[in-house]
Task: structure prediction
Amino acid sequence: MEHMARLSRELLRQAMAVMGSKGGKRSLETMTAEERSARAKKAATAAAKKRTAERLARERQAKRK
Result:
C-alpha cells in the first residue's frame, strides 16, 4: 500500500513538472496594476503577521525557560 502511495506521488510530481506552472503567470498577465498591488499588499501583510506570531512564540518560549 505504501509503495502505491509513493508511486502515485512520483507520477503526480512528474505530471506537474511536464505541465509546468502557468496559473500565477497567467493571472498576473490578466490583472490590472491596482489588482497586482492589492495582491502584493495582502501577501506582505500576511508575511508580517506570520513573522510577528513566530517572534512572539519565541519570546514566550524564552520566558518559560
